[in-house]
């Protein structure tokens, strides 16, 4: 395959990237794109402070423990929030909610048992469906 000849500015940018391998990591991490880096390099030049910033951000090993600390702080905050909510709960109110939930589940079970059918048997506790003759009048 014949290799295309690159524009001189693109060739210079490739050399610049080879001298600054941290830029490759920036693109791989998704923090930026090659197009953005090229445009910045073309407009700002090789001596801009942006390029030093990229190298310093990735070279600092102290950032990783800080990130871990923030993650543990977030987990700690979550646990403390949950514990705070548990401490604020009223046991009587919780019992009331549990009773309401139990009644709702009982009602759902009753509806399901009606739809499943009990082979013609009436569910226990239901009164008979009324008199056979709905027009019962007394004679004088």
From TrEMBL:
Residues 54-75, 115-140 are annotated as: Disordered. This is YlbD family protein.
């Amino acid at each position: 395959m014949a290799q295309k000849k690159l524009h001189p500015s693109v060739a210079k940018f490739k050399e610049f990237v080879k001298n600054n391998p941290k830029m490759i990591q920036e693109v791989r991490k998704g923090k930026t794109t090659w197009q953005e880096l090229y445009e910045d390099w073309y407009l700002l030049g090789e001596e801009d402070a942006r390029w030093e910033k990229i190298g310093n951000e990735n070279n600092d090993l102290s950032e990783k423990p800080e990130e871990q600390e923030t993650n543990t702080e977030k987990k700690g905050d979550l646990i403390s929030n949950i514990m705070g909510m548990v401490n604020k709960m009223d046991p009587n109110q919780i019992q009331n909610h549990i009773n309401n939930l139990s009644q709702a589940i009982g009602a759902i079970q009753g509806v399901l048992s009606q739809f499943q059918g009990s082979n013609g048997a009436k569910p226990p506790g239901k009164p008979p469906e009324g008199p056979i003759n709905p027009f019962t009048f007394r004679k004088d």
